Structure prediction request, 191 residues.
Amino acid sequence: MDLGERLKVIRKRHSISQRELAKRAGVTNSTISMIEKNTVSPSFSSLLKVLKGFPMSVEEFFTIDLVKTNQVVFRAEEQADMQAQGVEIKLIGHNIPDRSLSMLKETYPPGADTGEEMIKYEGEEAGTVVEGEIELTVDYKIYQLKVGDGYFFRTTLPHRFRNLGQTTAVIISANTGPTAVHPDNEQEAKA
Prediction:
């Protein structure tokens, strides 16, 4: 199921109109419509903003209708594929309900970016670069990471990942915290 179709199904399951979801997320009705029709591919930050209207994490969004509780091993073809802004993410254990940890393999082709808007949510994230180079911005400080370099930060700090290099970058990461908060909605999230 593609991103737009998935958004439409989940929106309907929540009995929310496009207009209501747009209002809750702080985006235009046409943005929701274009995403559902797959005429636009939202950045991670834009997707987080839209999902705040449910509220729902990105991981839940891509895996909501897949439930297997006792699975231990996840073969490559069984890992959930998520994609936005050219960034490919493989989520291990996507169908485990009520998990507090997300284990990811993130692939950033040259020029890939998590979006111009910084991301933040309750939790922590750690990872290591296993291929290429990545630019990591955390709390408006920019870091250049190469193979073998790792990172750890509290995800309440605004952050962003970009591949400015000429080769693909791959990160293995883990994060906690299912509730994503868009920076523009920080006050609302604290209420």
